[in-house]
Amino acid sequence: MEESNKKAILGFLAPVAVGTLCLEAITVLVFVIIKKFSMGVIWGALWGTAVMVLYYFLMSLAVIKAASGNPEDVKKRIQASYSMRMLMLLVLMGIGLYLSSYLNLMNWIPMLLACIYPRISIAVYSAFKAKKDSADKTANSSESEKDGEI
What we know:
This protein is mainly α. It has one domain (3-149). The chain has five helices and no strands. It has helices at residues 3-33, 39-67, 74-101, 108-113, 117-149. The model has no long low-confidence stretch (mean pLDDT 91).
């Protein structure tokens, strides 16, 4: 894999993983506060986070692979990737629900909450990045105005 592809995947995956872990830490903290904490909460949070990071990693790989391939096959590749990722998500979350319901190895609440945390993380990261880009653009335009005055 090319270095630029690795950087693109890492640049996309880092906010997803960090944001999901932070939100899962808050979830665990809530379980501690309401006095419902157990090791199953940690295992559920870790399982859900691992599944969702894998999901978004495979998505980023599929997008890069589709973008570098034949333009006519892009839609087919993305659709096939989406179907496979959703099947994987269904199977792995099903395994997690089985482990939580029948074997009591993990708590299902933080595991399922992990499904929505990456989208929240991406939205927050995008908002901060847009604000930063806007501030940088404003700073650059004010610097060029100062250069024009002198």
